[in-house]
Amino acid sequence: MEHGPFHQFIIQRYVPIQIGGVDASYTNASLWMTIVLLAIMALMVLSVRGGALVPSRMQSMAEMAYEFIANMVRDNAGQEGMKYFPFVLSLFLFILFCNLLGLIPYSFTPTSQIVVTLAMALVVFIGVTIIGFARHGLHFLSFFVPQGVPVLLLPLLVPIEIFSYVFRPISLSVRLFANMLAGHTTLVIFAGFVVSLGVLGGWLPLTFIGALYCLEVLIAFLQAYVFTILTCLYLNDALHLHH
Amino acid sequence: MDPAAAKLIGAGLATISLAGVGVGIGQIFGSFVQGALRNPAAAPRVFGNVLLGFALTEAVALYALVIAFLILFVF
Q1: pLDDT surpassing 70 at residue A111
Q2: Residue A178: which of B56, B62, B73 has the nearest Cβ?
Q3: Can you give the pTM of this predicted structure?
Q4: Does residue A25 contact residue A104 with C-beta atoms inside 8 Å?
Q5: How far is the alpha carbon of A226 from chain B, nearest alpha carbon, in Å?
Q6: Would you say residue A117 lies in a domain?
């Protein structure tokens, strides 16, 4: 296990903290989440401080991220969804930076822990459900009744709808977690091939690692995109029933 | 049967689901290329949906991977 493919996912306690029997230690996951937050703040605060009309490279990156998410929320959840835009932008930037900074060798990926992704998915799920009930009252329950279906089929379809709704946070969190886990494990396994094949044969897996790394950068972005766009779609379901 | 052997066989069987994922990803990009050749002007607009579909399909493969890991390392 010391140098196995799963060694990189082991949580190490840096500052042990116990609060009433709950282990709230400052771990390597907490450390990297702090670094991610500082990096996001550096990008968003420092780059727009000057506020130039012709943006610098850093400023245009921050503006591109802002416009990208603003368009996504407006296209998928409508103008009412813009109320929740700050949350969606924070979610996107946090996941994107966790994924990208996790690709640095010897770093730690917080999104490769199911606890982290499940917590984020549950925030989205519970929040969206509360928004739905607050906006439509008990009428929100009609979301589970598909329209234009024979009444005879309803006893079959309503449990399926409820099940697929409850399953949302699990699929949302496992998708992100499994992508990160699989990508990082594959990289380490191929790195092991390089060592075991030696100087003569090791070049082939080494080039493959290069290609895989490019794919991982794409996937890091893609999974952040998928997580946020699904959040927008769930928000749209809660804001506008049956559209 | 030796439990260790059964574990390895189970993890191997879990990867069969990759067949379905292969079909799915091929279908997504095949349909995209077909549609893009018929109407090249509309191609950039649907590329985001193509990537979304790709990521969702790929996630199914990773569920299988998680199950294989669970069989190998948890039980």
Answers
A1: yes
A2: B62
A3: 0.86
A4: no
A5: 6
A6: yes
ipTM score over 0.85, yes or no: no
CATH number at residue B22: 1.20.20.10
Number of structural domains (chain A) is 1
Q: How far is A168 from A164, CA to CA, in rounded Å?
A: 6
Task: Please give the residue range of the domain that contains residue A150.
Answer: 7-239
Residue with tokens 């992100």: A176
Return the DSSP state at A56: -
Residue A243 pLDDT greater than 70, yes or no: no
Q: How confident is the model at residue A97 (pLDDT cuts 50, 70, 90)?
A: very high
Run of H or E residues at A151: none
Residue A50 has pLDDT above 80, yes or no: no
Report the C-alpha gap between A39 and A62 in whole angstroms: 12
Q: Which of A134, A124, A56, A125 is nearest to A90 (CA)?
A: A124
A80: its two tokens: 């009412």
The minimal CB distance from B55 to the residues A171, A174, A222 is found for: A222
CA of B52 vs chain A CAs: smallest distance (Å): 6
Inside any domain, residue A214: yes
**Does the pLDDT at position B9 exceed 50?**
yes
| Residue A2 pLDDT exceeds 70 | no
Q: Is residue A188 part of a domain?
A: yes
Q: Which residues pair with A18 in a beta bridge?
A: A23
Domain of B33, in residue numbers: 3-73
Measure the CA–CA gap between A225 and A113, rounded to whole angstroms: 19
Decide if pLDDT at A189 tops 70: yes
Query: Per the domain annotation, does A191 fall within a domain?
Result: yes
Q: Which among A178, A222, A223 has the least Cβ separation from residue B63?
A: A178
Number of domains, chain B: 1
pLDDT tens, residue by residue, B12-35: 999 998 999 999 999 999 999 999
Residue with tokens 């409850």: A166
Question: What backbone torsions phi and psi does residue A149 show, to the nearest 5 degrees?
Answer: -120, 140
Whole-number pLDDT of residue A1: 47
Q: Which two tokens stand for residue A57?
A: 């490279």
